[in-house]
Amino acid sequence: MTNQSAIRASKILVVDDQQANVQLLTTMLQRAGYLNVTSTTDSSIVCDMHLDNHYDLILLDLLMPHMDGFEVMAALRKLEVSAQPSILVVTAQPNHKLRAMQSGANDFISKPFEHSEVMTRIHYVLQVRLLQQEALHHNKFLERTVRERTVELRRSEEMFRELAANIPEALWIRDVDQQTIQYANPAWQKLSGIDAVAGDPLEKIFKTIHHDDLLWLTNDRRKARAGQADNEYRLVHADESERWVHARSFPITNPTGNSPWIVEIIEDITQKREAQQQLVHLARHDALTSLANRTLLYDSLREALVRADEENLVVSVLLIDIDYFKIVNDTLGHAMGDALLCEFAARLADCVRPGDTVGRLGGDEFAVVVLTPADNFNASKVASRITKALQRPFVLAGQDVLVTTSIGIASYPIDTRDFETLLHYADTAMYEAKAAGRKTFRCYNPEMKERAIRKLDIQSALRLALDRGEFVLHYQPKMRVDGGQLASVEALIRWNRPGYGLVAPGDFVPALEEMGLIVPVGTWVVESACRQIRKWQKAGLGDVRIAVNVSPKQVREELFIAHVSAAVRDNRIDPALLEFEITETTLMAHGESTDIALRSLKALGISISIDDFGTGYSNLAYLKRFQVDALKIDTGFIHDITTNADSATIAVAIINMAHNLRLKVIAEGVETQEQLDFLRDHGCDEAQGFFFSKALPEAELSQHYRQANGLKAEPDATLFAFAEAGRA
Q: Which end of the chain lies in a sparser environment, N or C, as judged by fewer CB atoms within 10 Å?
C-alpha cells in the first residue's frame, strides 16, 4: 500500500454535538477519498468506540454538552501510548487552542470550516502519525532482530556483516573501554559521508555531530543507564549538509568478556521533522495564503500593545473586507476565488512595512497591525496605499478582475486600551465603510458605537417581529393614466414596532437582508397579499390586483416557487391578480436560476414588472429573455420630468421603447398635476404617488375605495375621486 493509500485508509472518527457539522466534515472527508469515516454526536461514547475500532484520527469538537472535548482527551490519554489516537480539535474559540494542545491535541481546525485548511491539516496529522508508526514498528523490529541475532553473529561475523549491510538505517558499534569503533555499516557511511572501520577512534564519529548538539548529547548519554539512550540531534555530512537523525543505543555482549559493547541505530528523520515543522507553521498561518492566521495575528497584536506602552507607540488595527467577493466567487468559481485571495494577500503584504503584521482572519476578511510613533501616527496612509494598490486589476486566467475593499481602522490607546474592544471598534468602522457605499475606509469614532448599538437593537427586535405579528402591509394605489380607474395596488411592508410605532421599510429592510431574514419575511408578504386579495373579494370589492416587491434572495430560494404556488392555492385566488416587482440587479445576477424562477412564475400566470427601471444595468436583452410584462420608471426621473429636459427625454424614451416591446409602463413618485399631464400626453399607462394617495392600511384603503365607488360599485373610480379620498 502506498503512503497516500495508507493515509486514505486511516480510520477517522468525527465527534460534534451539532449534526450539521458532523455531516459537513464527513462529506468533505469522503469526497477527499477517505474510506473509513465514522461519526457520533455523543461525546460520552468516544472512548468505547475507540477501544472497539482503534481510530487513527479523531476530529473532536471542544464545546459539547455532558462531556466536552477536554474531558474526552483526558480519558483517551489514560490509554496506553500505543493505543492513543491522533486528535484534531475543532473550535471557533482562539483562546481554547493553546489549552487543547497542552491537553494532548495534535492540531486544530478553526470554525467556520475552510475546505483547504481542513484537508491540509488532516493530511499532515495523518502523515506524521503514519511516519511515527512506521518508525516505531521498524525500530522495534530492528531492536528485536539485533538482539535475537547477536548470539549468532558472535559465531558468524560474516552473517552479521551481511545483516548490517542490508538494513536501511545507519548502524555502528563502539567499544566503551577502548573508545574505538568496532563496526560501521554502509548506511552509516552514506549518511555521514565518512568511511569508519574497526579500530578507528570514536572521535571520528563524534565529529559528525553538530557542534551545538554535541555537549548536551554527551551529557545525556553519560546519565543514561547501561548504555541505553534515545535522542534526536543534527548530523553534519562530510559535504557540510545537515540531517536530523533519531539515534537509539543499547548494550550487547562483548565477545571478549569485558564491558558490553554499545550498538547505535540511526534513522534519518529529516523528512518527518519537516512535516512536523509544517504542522507548526499551519497552526499559526493561513493554509491558502500563508499569511498569519487569526491565532498568530492576535498574538502579534498583544505583543504590539505591550511594546506600545513601553515605547510610546500607537497600534492601529485595519480590518479589510473585499467588496462583493461572494459575487466573484460564485461567478468565476471557487478555484478562481482562491486565486484572487492569494493575489490579494500578496499585494496587501506589499503595502506594509516589514515590521507590520498582515493576516487573514477567514473568508475574504484580512487584517493589518501597524505600529507608528505617537506623535506621527497615521494609519489612514496605509489604507490609502491599499486602496491605490487595488486600482490595478488582478489577472486571473487571462481575465481582468477589479476589486475594492471596505476598511475599518481603530487605534490603541487613542480609541481604547482594551484588546477585544480595539478589534470590535475596527469591525464597527469597517461596517461603517460598507454602509458608506464600500470602496473606502473609515476610522472609528464614538458616534459609530451609538449607531452600532441602535443597529443591534433593531436587529434584536427584528428577530422576534415576524413571530410576534408585528409586520403589516400598507397599499398604495396604481391608477390608469388615460381613464382614471384603479388599476392595482402595491403592497408595502411596515413594521409596527412596539413602543416606536410604524417603522418605514428603509429603516429595517436592509437589516432583514443582512440578517438573512428577508426570505421568510418575503414569504409572509406574498402569503399576506394573497389573503388580502381573497378578503377583498369576499367583502364585495371585486378583483383587486396586488403588486409585491420580491428580493433577489427570494428569487434564488429553492422553495420560492413552491411557496408562491401554495399561497395562491390555499387562498383560492386567480394568480393573474398577483404581480411581482423585481429590480434589474435581480435579473442580471445568477441569470440561469433567475430565468428558471421567472419562467415558473409566468407559467403560474403571475406577471413580472421591472422596478426602478433605468437605474441599474438597463440591458435590453434581458427584457426579451425574461419575458417581463411591465417597466416602472424610477422616481428619480419623474421628480423633475417637467423641469429637466434630460429626465423628460429618458422618460419618453422608456415609454416608447416599452410600448414597442409590447410592455406596460408605470410611473412611480407622481406628485403634481403637471407630472401627470406630461405622462398622459406621452402615453404612460399607469401611475402611482402621493398625488393620488400615500400607502394606506387595508381598512383605510377599503373605506376610501367604497366612498369613491359606492358600496356596490364596480372598481371604476375616477382618478381624481380616488385621489381626493386618499388625501382626505
A: N
